[in-house]
Every structure is written in structure tokens, then in C-alpha cells.
Amino acid sequence: MSTTVSLTVNGKPCTVEVEPRTLLSALLRDKLGLTGTHVGCDTSQCGACVVHVDGKSRKSCTTLAVQVDGAEVTTIEGLAAADGTLHPMQEAFRENHGLQCGFCTPGMVMSAVDLLHTNPSPTEAEVREWLEGNICRCTGYHNIVKAILDCAANLRGAQQAAE
Amino acid sequence: MTADGIGVAVRRKEDRRFLTGAGRYTDDIDRYGQVYACFVRSPYAHATVDSINKESALGMPGVLAVFTGADVAADGLGLLPAGWMIHNKDGSPMKTPGHPLLVADRARYVGEAVAVVIAETYAQARDAADALEVDYTPLPATIATGTASKPGQPQVHDDVPNNTAFDWCIGDKAATEAAFANAAHITKLDIVNNRLIPNAMEPRAAVGEYDPGTEITTLYTTSQNPHVARLVLSAFVQLAPEHKLRIVAPDVGGGFGSKIYVYAEETVCAWAARKVKRPVRWTAERSESFVTDAHGRDHVTHAELAMDANGKFLGLRVKTFANLGAFASLFGTATPTYLYMTLLSGQYKIPAIYGEVDAVYTNTTPVDAYRGAGRPEATFVVERIVETAARELGLDPADLRRRNFIQPDEFPYQTPVLLQYDTGDYDKHLTKALDLGDYANFTIRKADSAARGKLRGVGFACYIEACGIAPSAAVGALGGGVGLWESGTIRFNPTGNVTVHTGSHSHGQGHETAFAQLIATHLGVPVDQVEVVHGDTMQTPFGMGTYGSRSLAVGGSALVKAADKIVAKGKKIAAHLLEASEADIEFTDGKFTVAGTDKAKSIQEVAFAAYVPHNYPAGVEPGLEESAFYDPLNFTFPAGTQICEVEVDPDTGEVEIVQFVAVDDFGKIINPMIVEGQVHGGIAQGVGQALMEHAVYDQDTGQLLSGSYMDYCMPRADDFPTLKVGLTETPCTHNPLGVKGCGEAGAIAAPAAVMNAVTNAVGTMVQMPATPLRVWEALQSAAPAAAAE
After folding, report:
1. pLDDT value of position B788
2. B299-469+634-788: CATH number
3. Which residues pair with B39 in a beta bridge?
4. Beta bridge partners of B492
5. A residues 13-72 near B, CB within 8 Å?
6. N or C, which terminus of chain A has less Cβ within 10 Å?
7. Half-sphere exposure for B230 (CA within 13 Å, toward CB)
8. Which tens digits make up the pLDDT trace of B243-259?
């Protein structure tokens, strides 16, 4: 019944025995103890489970573990620097109060990071549209949107300073 | 003001763990030897359970046990109770059949748990649950709120005639009738307050565990009030004596009321752990949350407002049918009565008010308090009818409200519906909201919308709410089964940092930061030197938990009392160390100083002396730790104004919120950043109710048609513009912090503001949720009349 999946998670190679029906979210949470990735629904709507697979955001609750054999997966636990310095997006969420209960936060942050990879200068409308697949019940999205726009501005500012 | 004390937008202490995936929610807990529960649920709204063939599941791989209602009953476990007694008009008590943990003989709503399968893995438990053979005989079901009490409807409970749990009233009927007899104008309104599903993003979860050594049962669970859960499970369900039962609510991912209540599933996990001698865990799939988390609202209401020729309010009468679902949930009976009709006076002088509520049982999921709990329903009645009256009379809605506001010099103000408001300045937040929303130029914006083929509307909501629930004696007099004080302990550690234990519970509200700020201001200890502990009945003093925007007003006040005790004791110790008279010691900014000198000891030095009392005043106990319990003297009364502007597309019926303004008076503010965040979130939930959210039941079968995120429309980021929020401040007069509470205001006012705007744009009545279909239909029905004009 079980099968073997080899993948890299947050820079660490690992090999895990899974059932063919095991989801990536279950692999991360139950097999690897990476409980930062949350599961908030069963219809692939809420986005609490978003991780990066080969650099792109992906809902881990609708990805089979066997689909990520050989892939590079980054979870919320792998986003901050090794010395604990928060990723600019994490810092922007903290600075702008972009989280309350924290449950949707990992998926929101991972999704937002991918947005800025795709579009470094999104408009407010583009940010709101991008978040279509992430539900938050606490913040009314107001400060999440603010945090993402703030992060984008900070990153552009840092890039200009470097040039 | 200290650098990180009261009034500062301190960034939250709890954020780092949530942002790095280090939060610890119930489903993140991993216990050695744990096994998994999967519940078998009734697929019928109403059915007898004729037989359950356990063998069909017991033979499946990994299955340890199958339990049914008979097993639970055999162990002597009781029913889940209603916690608030309501009396009928004739003085007789309400009828409240208890909710069984597992259905014994008759299922009364879709999703009610009939059996539980325990297995080594969740997949095995789910496979076996699917295989369990249960024979049902379906029965006709009662679903609709407005007709459940009509004769001939199927009986949800045999001993509750006409499905009526109670018929209750408030106010002076005769005086109200007299007011209507003298009215120059009467406005009438029929409104539906749509049933909602709370949808905290973290699904409910439980890990039950039994320690045979200590004989203590531990339940890790998603609770807003672990001590209340322990009390109910002990005193009513007989799960275990209180001292042998530990409830831990670790990080909790949102509650909005739905995690106040004690549910069957969590209880069964704790009990089953003893039966199978392994930790038993369960986390709701979202589909389970939809059918088992207590729902919210669900009122059908007729209201009438009587006015004189000048638009002065003379009287208000309201009749509501409130749906309790299949059983009265823990606070399900208080929500449509004392938390609802006591707010019918709004911000206005209304000399006579009379309200009636018929609460009905139906074959639907139980209904209980959901963000705002009764107060959104009251605000919806009052603010919809006031706005409708203004439009009927051709008055500006702001003007009609101003004519009737309770004035600042009229406080304390006794309403005709029990409550006495302590303070407020309603014109102040209305005026500020009008400015913030540039109301003066609304007609220009309306013309601009019209030029683009859009219908623009504006709507107001001047809400009031009763928070900081509540004086225990008052709660008792009104039928509540508990006291609603709060507790707190401040423990200085020998090295000078502080551990705070609170009976409140944070599930997104930021208590770890706000309570630390309170300590920073009152005791001069920096926020990063304060750890706030909550949510564990073994660690914290008995507390009543977090709901009704009560944590700061009641729990924070308890901490102020405890801080005062710390200072009082510290003065004794400092006086001894400084060789001065206690009466000469002053305490400010963390320092005990001999008045008029530079002789001082820091509170950390005093704490050290208290724990290493080598040089110490005679007769003073060692240690520096103080507890306090605070029972509020009154409710608090946050109030404010929201103004919403919408654009309606007449071709599609789509409603877009193009401007949203909220100005709130929450009294004193501890952390403005957190307060604004609470307002934003509340508004989003209120907008969700107004425009998209709706728990829809099939009226024949009782199936929940909106039972997933594919069907139940949750507000998304692109449903909102940037929100404009502001504050005014009239401090609460009766608690030491002057605070009122901010957790629910947004959700309380927004439905009325949005629907007033939609009605203004469309020109005719639309019921919530104002979906594109409903708005389009309203426009079509209004069109012929408009054409005829």
C-alpha cells in the first residue's frame, strides 16, 4: 500500500513513506512535524495550507504527496533566515498587524511572497485579487493588503538603494 | 505614558510564533500513543435511529472501538445543558431538552453525531465510519423560523408543543400601545436576519487524554472559555469532578462565539480516551464545522416605530421569531432575549418600547451567540427602521437621528428595556463619520455613479451595544446560570520579570500584548518582561473566558485591581528598605520613591527582597504575587456610527462597497493598532452577512445546502475597499480603565449600514444577503412602478 516519496523541505532532503492517498499537507504536518502549514477547509478554498513547491505557491491540501516526489518544498517554517531574522513579508505582517488569530497567516504569507515574485509592484486591486484563494476571518483583509503593499514598497526601496 | 504602555500601538508579542509557523493549535499537539476519532453523523434532519451494527466497523483495519449513545448513557454521562433560563410571559420556565452527546434514539438535525469510531489512524477511522451500518427511519422535519410554531408542524421534541421553547416579552405593552395611538406617523418593517455560520478559520478540535496515575482527564481543545467548559463538563455532563478535569485551550484560531459552547465531539474525545486508554484526537473537517458549529442569528421580525409630527420617536414595538435550532445551546436562549431586545432603544430616547420573542426549535443545527450576539440583530431592527422612517418622512437620515439622540447631559440614561447607559456622545461620532465620509458631497458622487450607469446609495448605522458582560447579580436575576466576573493574577518572579495569569482567553485579540501594556503602565515593567498566561485550567485562576467584548473591561479591570495590591504591598516593603514611613512612599514608573527625596527602590528590587526576605518588614508575607476578581458594576456601552456607500450595477444586481466609514467610541484605548484591527474584522463579517453569507436549508429535507466554502460565500479581500476608521472617546464611568470593548462593534453595525445603503440605491426593500440575484429581482419588481410614475 505505502510508497516512498523523496523531496527537499526547507532545504533539507527527506524520504517519507506515505499512502498513495496521503496529501502534502498531511505529509508536512504528520510525518515531518511541520505544523505551521494549516488545514482550514476540505474544498481547497481557504488557503491556510499554501506552501511553495519549486518556488510557486501551491495548496498543500489538494496536492498528493506522491506529486511532489523530487520537488523543493518551502513551508512557513523555512521562510525566515537561519539566524531567525524574519522574511520581509513576515516583518511587514507584524509591523502592519496583518494577523490576529494566526491560523490563516502561514498561507497568507506564503501566497503573498509568491505574489511579489510574480509581480513586484502590485496595485491594491491586484493584491486583493491575488488573495482570492486565501480566506481570513479576523482582519477584514485590510491590514493584510496594507502589509503586502508595504512589503512591496520596502523591497523596491531596498533594490533601488542597492542599485 | 510609558514607551510601551497604555495608548501605544505596540507590535504584538504573539506575532512572531504565528508568522514562523510556531503557533501551537490543538491539532498541532502530538501525544504518544494517540488514536483518532471519526464521527458518524445523521444524514437526515429528523429520523429515528433504529439500529447500529457495530460489527460492520469493528472488523475494519486499525479500529479500536465504536461507541454509540447507549455506551455514553451506560457510563452515566449527562446531556449538554442550556445555560440561561428564560421565562415565558406567564412566568413558567422555558422548555429545554438537553443535547445528547451521541444520538440515543432520534436524530434531530443533519450532522448530529450518532456514533464515533476510534482507530489507529484518521484514515482508518474515517473508512470504518463510512462502513458503519446505521438504520434510520426518516421523519418529517420542521425547518423554517417563521412557521415552526404554527399548529401541525412536525414536532422536534415531543414534549415541546408547537416547537416553542418560550414566548418572552420585555417593556411596557400598554404604554407602547398608547404611544402608537398618538402617533402622527408609523413606519413598519418586516426583516429577516439571515442565519450565519461562524467559520473561525481553525476548525474545532480536541485531544482527550487520561492519566491513570493522577486520574486526571485532560482535554486540549479549541475553547474561548476553558473554565466554563470544565464547569459544564463536570457539573452537568458528569465527565469528571472539576479537580480531576483539566481543560487546555492553547492557541485558538478564531472563535467569534462558536468556541464558547461545550460540544458533543470534544466531550466524547475526553471520555473515549478513558475507555480506550489512549489519547483520542479529533479535528473537524470543514464540512463537519458547517453542520455542527453553533450557527448565528436567524430571526424573522416585524417592527413598528411611532413618531410625532416632528419625527420625535414615541414608541417602538417588535415581534421576533428566533430559531434556536434543534436544541438550546449553552447561551442560545440569552442571545435572542436579554442580549437582543435590551438594546432596542439604540442611541435614542424612545419613551415606550415593547418587544416579544417566540423562540422555536427546528430540525437544524443549534443557534447560539455569534460575534455581536443579539446586538447585531437589535441594531439591524433599530437602524433599519429609523433609516426607513427618515426616507418616508423625507428627512436626512442623519438629521432624524440627531433629533432623537440621547444627549450627553442626559446620562446616566435609563432605557425602557432594562439597561442604564452610563455615558456617551452620539452626535460626536456621527459628525466625525460624516466628515470622514465627506457626506456633504454624496450627491456629487451619486451623480458621478449615475453617469457610469451605476446606482449609488448611502446608508447609516448608529449602533449601541452592551459589552463587558456582566454584573453577576444582574446575570443571575435575568436567568443566567453563572457569574460573569473575571480573574487575574500578577506574579513577580524573583528576578523582576512578571508572569500574568488571566481567566480571559485570547484567540486573536492580542491579550498577550494588550495585557502586558496594562502591566507596563500600572507597574512600570516593560512589555517584553511580561508573560501573559491563559487558557489552562491547571495554571490560571478560575475565569469566565472571552466573549461579548469583555476581556479588557472585565479581565483587564481584574488585573488593575491585582496591580493595585502589588503596589500596596510593595510600598510596605520599600518603606522598610528605604527606612521611611509607608505613608511617604510614592509609586510611579516602576519606582517606589520617598516623597520629596531621590531615595528610591525599583519594583524589581522590591520583588527580589520579597522573595529573599533577609531584610524585610515584620508581619509582611514573603513573595510578590497578587490575585483579584472583578465583578463589573454595569455593562459598558460602546457606540458609534458607520456610513456605507454602495454602487449597484442595475444590469447584474452586483453590489460594490465603494466607501466604508466607521467611527467608534470605545472609551479609553490600550492599543489603537489592535482596536482598529478588531473594527476591520468586524466590518468584514457584517458586510459578509449583508451581501453574501447565508446558511441555506432545504425547506423539505433539512439538508444544509450551503455546507462548504464552495456554497457558503465567505468575504474575500476583493470584496472591500480600504476602510476608513476613526475614534471618539467618552471613557466608561464605572471600570478602572475607562474601557468599553471593541471586539464586536464592526459586525454589529455593518449589516444595517450596508442594507440601508443597498435599499437607498435600489429604492426598494431587499432582504439579507443582498446577493446579485436578489438585488436584480428587486430592481425588476421596482422597475414597472418607476416606469408608471
Report:
1. 42
2. 3.30.365.10
3. B116
4. B498
5. 19, 21, 29, 33-43, 45-46, 48
6. C
7. 28
8. 999 999 999 999 999 99
